[in-house]
């Protein structure tokens, strides 16, 4: 298990692609934690029994949801601040672990593939790739139009290169 998260060894393009897909799978606990926290917060605002399947209770839940949606539209900052203040140490720790796991695994995956392709310059190329990813994320979130399209296309080209370009290693350890 340790070898999957370590920054050593090399991997083939096929394993790089599969590990990238597994990085997506590793985000599932984060999604579950986010939905759980969101649900727990909104359930704490209402006074109804979620385990009661009766039609009256379901209508009460629906009415509560509609009223809460109107209140959120009227004063979103209050509910955002209230939601953020409801986080306990355990929730924060859970989110940090759920975020760090896929990031670490993804970075290790990229490092191993870059090591297979650019062994002598692997540290510089890895740093350049991480810097490009950070800058491209900033550009994509803060711009639109042709710049957004070009940056996204360039990131896709880099990914395709990492998947399909043959490395000089016959066997990979990683």
């Amino acid at each position: 298990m340790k070898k999957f998260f370590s920054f050593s060894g090399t991997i083939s393009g096929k394993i790089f692609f599969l590990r990238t897909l597994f990085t997506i799978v590793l985000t599932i606990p984060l999604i579950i934690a986010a939905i759980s926290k969101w649900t727990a917060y909104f359930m704490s605002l209402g006074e109804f029994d979620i385990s009661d399947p009766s039609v009256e209770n379901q209508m009460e839940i629906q009415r509560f949801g509609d009223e809460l949606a109107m209140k959120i539209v009227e004063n979103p900052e209050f509910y955002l601040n209230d939601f953020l203040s409801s986080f306990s140490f355990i929730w924060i720790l859970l989110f940090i672990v759920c975020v760090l796991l896929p990031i670490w695994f993804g970075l290790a995956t990229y490092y191993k593939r870059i090591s297979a392709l650019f062994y002598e310059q692997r540290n510089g190329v890895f740093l350049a790739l991480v810097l490009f990813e950070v800058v491209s994320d900033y550009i994509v979130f803060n711009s639109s139009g042709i710049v957004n399209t070009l940056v996204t296309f360039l990131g896709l080209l880099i990914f395709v290169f990492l998947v399909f370009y043959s490395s000089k290693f016959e066997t990979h350890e990683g």
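Helices lie at 2-5, 13-25, 28-45, 55-74, 76-85, 89-117, 122-142, 146-164. Residues 2-164 form one domain.
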